[in-house]
User: Fold this.
Amino acid sequence: MKLGLLTSIMPTSSLEEVIEFAAQQGFSCIEAACWPKGRAKRRYAGVTHIDVEHLDDGQAARIKDLCRARNVEISSLAYYPNVLDEDENSRRAAESHLKKVIDASRKLEIGMVTTFIGRNHNKTIEENLEIMKKIWTPLLRYAEEREIRIAIENCPMLFGKEQWPGGQNLFGAPAIWREVFEILPSSCLGINYDPSHFIWQMMDYIQPIYEFKDKIFHVHIKDIKIHRDRLDDVGTMAYPLSYMQPKIPGLGDIDWGRFISALMDTGYDGAACIEIEDRAFEGSAEDIRRSIILSKRYMEQFII
Assistant:
């Protein structure tokens, strides 16, 4: 297993600086953020460490040389939009950029893109599955032709009132995964497995590892802390951020020993990238770097 870092937590650093930092800290890989430049619509989005819209052969060669020189792989190109957005212009823009990310993953010889399925949050699950089939069938064909695997993160993207009622990513639970994989039976489609999203949905985050072991392409390392007093006050039907809080690994409710043990049971040997969204470490660039160092130090109990 390769311990890595999702680069979106370092928005003011260049790719060269991120790779240098990752090498200094002993990371094996990075998941490189590839959003369109200057088009952020939410926190942790809009970060561009690889500008796929202008990536030519020379730039690709320099990135590959840099990674080889510092012994840091790029595990995946990361872009997490809503390609099922009810706004057609937003949907088409997201779909167009996702194709560019897929092309860049091929050019850089990475072979993977991490993203969301998306969701029209004002429509039912059944309606969204129909929309998904229409949009994702050609997208997956595009990825297959370029031999790129697509790993979908299991984040429902349902945190506050702007994403209510259904959230912006359909791919939030194992029951949905089964339907998605039946509707889209592509060997290129898999999971970017993030246990933190099981915690605030009050779900088992261990058992699905065994059932979906052949579909786990990539892993996120992020923790969640449930504030039980707040949950008792507002209930599970409230906005999730009313009762939960993203934390660095070790400061939330995930048993990381059990989680990594289950992955090892299944023979998973891919990337496990630390994703940081802990507001306690966002006061400065120094705080952000400290959060990364602390996270890695904690996870090295289980991944070396």
